[in-house]
Amino acid sequence: MMLHTSTRKIDVYNVESTDINKNFTMSSEVNCVDRPVLLTLPNPRYREVIANNSHLDGVEMDDVDQKPMLPVHMILGASDYLRNKTTTPAKVGDDRKPVTE
Question: How far is CA 46 from CA 23, 67, 93, in A?
Fold first, then answer.
């Protein structure tokens, strides 16, 4: 494996994220990266996951995208993630079952 180091200036922007109902707001610093997509993940198909796991009854997801791979556009750091918690208790099922927060 070859190792490489480079130094360059990176644009940093202050971004404010809100939920669709405008009940939650979070400020973050983001970096400008010259790539259209940093990461893609397999589509979890939320409707199927919720339908197949009774302990998730009542969970509502607005994402109905059917593409096989979904782009990840924002990656939150650990401290930002912790601020992005909800007041709704987690829905937890048996071992190896999905969990929501």
Answer: 23, 12, 16
